[in-house]
Design a protein that fits this description.
Layout: E1 2-6, E2 14-17, H1 23-31, E3 35-39, H2 48-54, E4 58-60, H3 69-81, E5 86-88, H4 109-115, E6 119-128, H5 138-142, H6 150-158, E7 163-172, H7 179-203
Parallel strand pairs: 1-7, 2-5, 2-6, 3-4, 3-5
Antiparallel strand pairs: 6-7
Amino acid sequence: MEWSVAGRLPESGAVVSNHLSYLDILVYLSVRPFVMVAKSEVEHWPLLGKITQRAGTVYVQRGGGPSTYGAVNAAMAAAYRSGLPVLFFPEGTTTDGQSGVLPFRRGLFHSVLNEGVELRTAAVRYELVDSANEGASVARDVCWVGDDYLGPHLFRLLGLRGVKAEIQFGDEVRARGDRFVLSEGARGVVVEMCEGALVSELVGV
């Protein structure tokens, strides 16, 4: 697997990205150290669970409700104090990269405002560059979407050749009136980056 990176690497603060696969976590961590934010189930996954534990990941219980907010905010505050950039995926799930960027869930944007940290954006996309992958597709065999089981998907992914990841980092999101304004501004930038990558792919740029 190979990857390319465009844009200035974040040094601290928060980073939000679109989300295509469990592979996203490994790709971002290969670029530079991050504190990742992931759903609590990831902690118990084979292999990826151990990797994310060692990376100091903040695990968030989906649908935990108000009773979990205090613990999540405290964990996020500690993550920002680590000095590493904190990366999370506010879509809350993965997509196939072709159906657009989902609406952002706003909960974790509270921590960005509460701690007064910089917010940056990022976008990830994948490409199959080896002709040996006949019949395979990024949407089905790299992106992990819906009810696809982890084991069979991982088996297909490991059988691919010439998987290329492209990461683009955007500038700081400066519209910070509240979490609604902040999340919508961030999503708008991520959408622009993802749509730009898709257009380039379609026209062969």
